[in-house]
Amino acid sequence: MQVFLPDSYGGAVSRADGTRTADELATLVALLGRRMRAASAEAELTPSQQSVMGRLGHEGPATTAALARRELVRPQSMRATLAALEERGLVVRAPHPTDGRQVVFSLSASGAALLGSGRAARRGWLAEAIEARLTPDEHRALAGVLPLLRRLAQSPQHGNPTGDVPQ
């Protein structure tokens, strides 16, 4: 099967050349993510801290062990991340409701505010970049690719049989 791409990509490619597409897409997604993080109020946080705050904001309170599993890090690393966030007043700890040996972490009011302002800043930066750097035809082409990217993001992968997109 042949897939035809713009001449800037080099013309038609076979499915076997998916590695090149995957490499370029991964590089561009990472760069876009860095640019968006730099535009947000959360820029002074590490990517790990941003991810944990996002998870707490989306999924609610969680234990250190649960966060470590979801973030695919060791509990010791998660404890360090949570300690840094707690020191800055961005997360708070509370006793576990059913297990007195554990604590649960949640966003503090200032953590939730920072998370909200960071999301707004990232979206604002991206919307402005789309408006300023793309022609209307390019904007439509980009919008047309979104269902494909969503389908890729939701495809099942090793260790994620449901295909849920990690937050």
Protein described:
- This protein folds into two domains: 16-41 and 114-153, no CATH class; 47-107, Arc Repressor Mutant, subunit A.
- The chain is mainly alpha-helical and 167 residues long.
- The two termini are 34 Å apart.
- The chain contains six helices and four strands.
- The strands form two sheets. It has a two-stranded antiparallel sheet. Strands 3-4 form a two-stranded antiparallel ribbon.
* Secondary structure tally: strands: 4
Alpha-carbon distance between the two ends: 34 Å
The outline comes out as globular
Order of helices and strands: EEHHHHEEHH
Brief synopsis:
This protein has helices at 18-39, 47-59, 64-71, 75-87, 109-133, 136-153; strands at residues 2-3, 13-14, 91-95, 103-107. It has 167 residues and is mainly alpha-helical.
SSE layout:
Layout: E1 2-3, E2 13-14, H1 18-39, H2 47-59, H3 64-71, H4 75-87, E3 91-95, E4 103-107, H5 109-133, H6 136-153
Antiparallel strand pairs: 1-2, 3-4
Keyphrases for this structure?
single chain; mainly alpha; Arc Repressor Mutant, subunit A; two-stranded antiparallel ribbon; two-stranded antiparallel sheet; 6 helices; disordered C terminus
